[in-house]
Design brief:
Elements lengths: L5 E4 L9 H19 L3 H15 L9 H8 L5 H6 L10 H8 L4 E6 L6 H4 L9 E4 H5 L5 H11 L6 E5 L2 H10 L3 E5 L10 E2 L5 H4 L5
Parallel strand pairs: 1-2, 1-4, 2-3, 4-5, 5-6
Helix pairs in contact: 1-2
């Protein structure tokens, strides 16, 4: 294992709490759907939720707000993001971890969220990151091993010079690991389900192999 030069972070569930996205997907969009179709909010939320489930989170469309606004014929998506931006909040350990890790490593974002969301999600912490990558918007795919290899190529590093951390076992641990990247699973529960999981971003520094 070579020395890690770059650390990439997932965003939602890792750096930022899910409140903003949940409010957009399950509040704002159903409200617009209800108004457009002349039905109650709860009925609209149920119908919209069923549409989400029909697509499923293993397809890139699940994460694409433009796709859903077109599918539901809701017009411009930007207003719903603006209306809920007050819901964005970072986890308590984020600023401390990024400040410390940024002294020794180049920090980037490798997210499955669409680029439409990232300016809102990263508004308070974007100063820490050299680059941001969206698998859905930039490469039209989910966070696969191929996506992580493209990130390495863009950063001009080999896979064993990148570490990645995120809260999805599939997309943030198994996928980058398959690409030869040092992967860390973040499980913020006090007793994570797997010994390979970290419970805080503060724990990451001690687990990194070597220092630059």
């Amino acid at each position: 294992m070579g020395n890690i030069k770059v650390i990439s972070f997932d965003v939602e569930g890792t750096l930022v709490m899910p409140d903003f996205s949940q409010a957009v997907w399950y509040g704002g969009i159903p409200s617009l759907y209800a108004k457009k179709n002349g039905i109650g909010f709860e009925e609209a939320r149920s119908m919209v939720g069923k549409e989400y489930q029909d697509v499923g989170d293993q397809r890139r469309e699940w994460y694409d707000i433009k796709y859903w606004f077109q599918r539901f014929q809701l017009g411009d998506y930007r207003e719903v993001l603006e209306d809920h931006k007050h819901k964005v909040s970072c986890y308590a350990d984020v600023t401390q971890a990024l400040s410390s890790l940024g002294k020794d490593y180049t920090l980037i974002v490798a997210s499955g969220s669409g680029r439409e969301f990232l300016p809102y999600l990263l508004a308070e912490i974007e100063v820490y990151f050299a680059r941001t990558f969206s698998s859905v918007s930039d490469y039209d795919q989910l966070k696969s091993p191929a996506f992580y290899l493209k990130v390495c190529q863009e950063m001009d590093i080999v896979p064993d010079e990148l570490a990645h951390i995120g809260d999805s076992w599939q997309f943030d641990f198994l996928a980058p690991k398959e690409a030869g990247i040092k992967a860390f699973h973040l499980d913020r529960r006090k007793e994570p389900k797997d010994e390979r999981s970290l419970t805080s971003l503060i724990d990451l520094e001690a687990r990194l192999p070597g220092r630059r």
